[in-house]
Specification:
Elements: H1 3-10, H2 18-24, E1 47-52, H3 64-80, E2 83-88, H4 99-108, E3 114-117, H5 119-127, H6 145-150, E4 152-153, E5 156-157, E6 167-172, H7 173-178, H8 187-199, E7 206-207, H9 214-221, H10 223-227, H11 231-240, H12 245-261, H13 267-272, H14 280-284, E8 290-294, E9 311-314, E10 325-326, E11 330-333, H15 340-350, H16 353-363, H17 381-388, E12 393-394, H18 405-416, H19 421-438
Parallel strand pairs: 1-2, 1-3, 7-8, 10-12
Antiparallel strand pairs: 3-11, 4-5, 6-8, 6-9
């Protein structure tokens, strides 16, 4: 399978949610040139140039996530008297170049003022000194600790999101009740549930795709690191080479290998399946009891927001019980932005408590501000309760020298394609050695 084909899938993986879309966005095209040209600006007009995955929404569009973001941009435009001009990534405009590839190139060449970035680009551009330090913004004072941890590079807060993207297991409660099963807390309990389902005629208990199986790995790899009270010391050990990422990752990969060996997931199907589109139909039809997805999928009728059965969203199995997994996207300002002052002011408004309340209520998502909360859908309460308790792992962390989300996803796909666990661990060792060699 070509790299081009692999990348094309990512831009469709989470189309219902702007944050999740950005995490998965990439694609192929036929031109390699940017055809989303900004309209002419009037002389003397105060502008901020913003590069993002999507354009401003049409007033009649049904993309709730895009509309929520536009509402906050409009708040900034009105308050500051500026105009935010969008330049957008569209896969058809680039040949075999992902959104990350394009944002890296644009930011390195100071082409825009404001960017919406994936975690790997936050880490890389922050380390290169290409992003402004946002810690002085008034809105930054209200951020949850998790946001600061995930988006701090070399002591600088370089990105702030509008939402916390949380991943969990979506389960069909009626099937669990039918077979007398409690919701699993640990990997062993999860495997037992799968065994019971399979023995009762459900051939493949877990619906999987090629993008999100890494969530199982993160939950098991970092349950203690993020919840054991010694987070920074463990990260420092990884960054110095005193500890190995492969030692953290091995239990999760061995768990996935067991799921494959037992037939609890279909590795061949997962390797070519698009997120939600690959496994969603069987889950909605009541044929598959377990799938994995992001928070917003429980709110969207185009995903799992409207089921004919009782659904709950829980954390992934770990040694510390059900564990939410949270990667981060974030807004950032270019260090050499032409309109840096206005860009910083725009960002300060769109991530203010007032704007985040609007955004969170519109999308029904977890806010990065510790002062903003909204009622979540009933199905999401188990996952939300864990997050509010401070129990979670990060799927991305700019403070780690090895980028987590993208690399782990790629190596999980190697496992699905037939690589051994040892070969996958060797891939992590190579990444760590390369990162330490570049330090």
């Amino acid at each position: 399978m070509s790299d081009c084909a692999e990348k094309r899938i990512r831009r469709r993986a989470a189309a219902c949610l702007a944050g999740a879309l950005l995490l998965a966005l990439a694609g192929c095209g036929d031109g390699g040139k940017d055809q989303n040209l900004m309209p002419s600006k009037e002389v003397g007009e105060r502008v901020v140039n913003f590069f993002s995955p999507m354009e401003k929404a049409d007033p009649n569009a049904e993309n709730v996530a895009r509309t929520a973001s536009d509402l906050t941009i409009a708040m900034a435009e009105k308050a500051l008297g500026v105009t935010v001009y969008y330049t957008t990534y569209t896969a058809e405009d680039y040949q075999d170049r992902t959104y990350d590839d394009v944002t890296m190139d644009r930011a390195r060449n100071d082409m825009d003022d404001l960017y919406l970035l994936n975690p790997d680009t936050v880490m890389a551009l922050g380390a290169e000194g290409k992003l402004m330090d946002l810690s002085g913004l008034d809105s930054a004072k209200n951020l949850r600790d998790i946001i600061r941890v995930a988006n701090t590079v070399d002591g600088k807060l370089v990105a702030i999101p509008q939402e916390v993207v949380a991943y969990g297991l979506f389960v069909n409660m009626e099937l669990f009740q039918q077979y007398g099963l409690d919701l699993p807390e640990t990997p062993e309990e999860f495997l037992e549930c799968c065994r019971v389902f399979q023995e009762n005629g459900i051939e493949t208990p877990v619906g999987a795709n090629r993008w999100w199986l890494e969530t199982f790995v993160f939950a098991q790899a970092y349950a203690d690191l993020y919840n054991g009270g010694n987070t920074q010391a463990e990260i420092d050990a990884l960054n110095s080479g005193a500890a190995r990422y492969s030692d953290y990752m091995r239990p999760g990969f061995e768990f996935l290998q067991t799921l494959i060996d037992c037939g609890y997931i279909d590795a061949e199907k997962a390797l070519v399946s698009e997120a939600i589109e690959g496994e969603g139909a069987d889950f909605l039809a009541g044929k598959t009891p377990i799938v994995m997805a992001y928070w917003g999928a429980a709110n969207s009728d185009t995903a799992y927001g409207k089921t004919d059965f009782e659904m709950q969203v829980i954390g992934f199995p770990s040694s510390r019980g059900q564990m939410p997994v949270m990667p981060m996207t974030g807004y950032a300002v270019g260090a050499n932005a032409e309109h840096a002052e206005d860009a910083m002011r725009v960002l300060d408004i769109i991530v203010s408590d007032e704007a985040l309340q609007v955004y969170s209520e519109t999308n029904r998502v977890i806010s990065p501000s510790k002062n903003v909360s909204v009622d979540c859908a009933p199905a999401l309460r188990p996952l939300n309760d864990r997050i509010e308790e401070g129990v979670y792992v990060l799927g991305s962390n700019a403070g780690m020298k090895v980028e987590q989300w993208g690399n782990t996803c790629r190596i999980v796909r190697q496992l699905l394609g037939g690589a051994t666990v040892d070969e996958c661990m060797a891939a992590f060792d190579q990444l760590q050695d390369a990162a330490l060699g570049d330090a």
